């Protein structure tokens, strides 16, 4: 996905962005192609950026493949909670 910065002089686009902040829009071109304009909330953006973090994704893939577990009583004992 690519981010495009909108100039302050692009009044028509800013009008559409204000509308999209209230409800999602479908823009239809004269040729009939349709485009969605929707506000992205911070959580969705955070997920997108996290998924782009290749090092983190490799780490999570390795963790998902681990079969060995540590019993709860062992964890509690190591934390002095028994």
Tell me the layout of helices and strands.
Blueprint: H1 11-22, E1 25-28, E2 34-37, H2 42-52, H3 54-65, H4 72-78
Walk me through this protein's architecture.
With 82 residues, this protein is mainly alpha-helical. It has a domain at 11-67. The chain is built from four helices and two strands; from the N terminus they run H-E-E-H-H-H. The protein has a two-stranded antiparallel ribbon. The model has no long low-confidence stretch (mean pLDDT 90).
Cα distance, first to last residue? 50 Å
Number of strands: 2
In which order are the strands of the major sheet placed? Answer: 1-2
Question: Major beta sheet, specifics?
Answer: 2 strands, antiparallel
Q: So how many helices?
A: 4
Order of helices and strands: HEEHHH
**Helix share bin:** 40-55%
The general outline is: elongated
Estimated share of beta-strand residues: 5-15%
Determine the structural class based on helices, strands and strand pairing: mainly alpha
Low-confidence stretches: none
Instruction: Output mean pLDDT.
Output: 90
Q: Write down the Rg.
A: 23 Å
Features:
single chain; 82 residues; mainly alpha; two-stranded antiparallel sheet
Summarize the structure.
The chain is 51% helix and 10% strand. It has four helices and two strands; from the N terminus they run αββααα. It has helices at 11-22, 42-52, 54-65, 72-78; strands spanning 25-28, 34-37.
